[in-house]
Known about the structure:
- The structure is a single chain.
- By secondary structure, the protein is α/β, with parallel strands linked by helices.
- The protein folds into two domains: 61-173 and 343-370, Rossmann fold (3-Layer(aba) Sandwich), CATH 3.40.50; 176-334, Glycosyl transferase family 10, C-terminal domain (Rossmann fold).
- Helices cover 30% and strands 16% of the residues.
- The chain has helices spanning 11-33, 35-38, 59-67, 86-91, 208-217, 236-244, 263-271, 282-285, 303-315, 317-321, 341-356, 366-370; strands spanning 45-48, 54-57, 70-73, 97-99, 110-114, 135-139, 159-162, 169-170, 176-177, 192-197, 223-226, 246-252, 274-278, 295-296, 330-331.
- Helix 5 crosses helix 9.
- The protein is globular.
- The protein starts with 10 loop residues before the first helix and ends with a helix.
- Residues 188-369 form the Fucosyltransferase C-terminal domain.
- The chain crosses the membrane at residues 12-32.
- Keywords: Disulfide bond, Glycoprotein, Glycosyltransferase, Golgi apparatus, Lipid metabolism, Membrane, Signal-anchor, Transferase, Transmembrane, Transmembrane helix.
Amino acid sequence: MSSTSLTGIPVGRLTGLVAIAALVSLILLYFWTSPLTSCPPRLPQLKQHSDGHHEEMNNSIADETVEKPVLLLWVWPENYRFDLKDCKTLYNIDGCHLTDDRALYSSSDAVLVFHRAISWDLSTLPPSPRPPFQKWIWLHLESPTNTQKIPGIENLFNLTLSYREDADIPVRLRLTSNKTPNEDFTIPKKDKLVCWIVSNNAAHTGVGKRNTYYNELKKYITVHMFGSAYAGRLSDEDYYPTIASCKFYLSFENSIHKDYITEKFNGPLSAGTVPVVLGPPRKNYERFAPRDAFIHVDDFPDAKSLAEYLTQLDRDEDAYRRYFNWRRHFSARPHLILQNQEFVLAICTACDHVARHKEYQEAHDIYEWFFN
């Protein structure tokens, strides 16, 4: 005779019902907590175009775009414009979102301000107060001789962008080391001994010393002159070929200051011509190029002695070729854009710096630094 529970149901049957109920509970619990039902599937991120069309974006690419800092170009230097994609094309720099859209001011991580575009009443500066996270960058590539002190901006900037090596963001095209010695460099054919391209010879730019030296040098050697200051302006296409056709090029700076070594030096190096430099001391030049890559006017007691040495090198091909031995180990790159080319490099360099440096910084009394 089988026993019964308090409910009157036989114990064996009750045990079976409990087991079935437990099994059903386990099945329901499994489906309830399963990833297939616990949350909706992740939808692809969509990018909306101005025409209302949507396209699917890779999430990692979208995140990378959002993370790029925004660099606002407040004013185009000298009103010279270029394609903002050139930073990627020319220098492989793509770390920031570069824009000239002032509507993005409040969300820009950094603002690039061109010194010569700042008015005396400061009305052309970006509005204040600036967002607390935002950095202002002082862009100035002229020498102290050619710089006006605009009152009231000494302590406005976070970063300095200049030719100076001790700037927060130094700007310069540099020689690059060859991974293996280059034995293939050929000196371009030469049909002129000494050349000089001069576009601006205004007295107020501080050109007195270079003009004095040139006027003395031309008494003893022929100098072929080009450029709007002495002859017709060279086209962009003729600029480097003209330099390459000369054995020596007068790389005379318009003023003499520490690190003020411009494209006048890089141009002949890249074109396959020996620069004859007038500027800061030789040791300063040797920070940027091997000592046997150029001739410094300070190496000679006077212009006559320099002219005699250049004439001697013209007759001694082996001695002349030694000025190109550095080419085995280094390469020189020309500026790819001739008109106001330094601004393209400077702006792209700023973009690279902003992408790499997130830390806060202030530049105190930029005039005390720059003029000393």
